[in-house]
Amino acid sequence: MTKAEKLLEKLKRRLAELEILLPDETPRNLYARDKQDMMLGYRLLCHAEMEGFIEALVRLVMEEVWDTTRKTQVITTAGQSMIDFKDRSDFPPTSLRRAPAKPYDRIKGIANDILSRASRNNGVTEKDILNLFLPLGVNPGDLDVSWLEVMSDFGKSRGDVAHNSWENHTQYDTTPVKEKDAVGYCLLGLATLVTLADDILAKNV
Length: 205
Fold this sequence. Notes:
Structural class: mainly alpha
Largest sheet: none
Order of helices and strands: HHHHHHH
Radius of gyration: 20 Å
């Protein structure tokens, strides 16, 4: 089992533990306020765990690539993909008179930037995921747009709870099954992120 896969297994165990917050189904899907609070608490905590997982996965990839470069003074294929993305993002250059940085220094700068992004991240939406994973050299075509939409919806549903008091809402339209299914859909794509992370690390030689 790879380090990335271990992170995913840890996440799955934690999400399974949080299911204790989900109340039993009722015949008419009507829940007292305390039961709704439990379901919304489940949503908030699952979001926090997935956000932490995404950030940890990004740190794992970047730290390994930078550690290899630092120890060997060699730019691996994984590192070069990060430089290539940076070049595309910075095109066109502001000036040709500025001496380009050495590849080693460029990877160091990229590492600092990506690790900073991970520390400042505050969500699991499509924007958050692209902001973290594209600079690692991930091909946008390898990310499922339908899943990214699911993540954005989940992030919005978390925000609706986290940034509003109960008085600002009518009764939440949710059930234990809806909450658990939403988390399950999110997990499908998170497993793909693990595969992409392992693909990057396989090129870090």
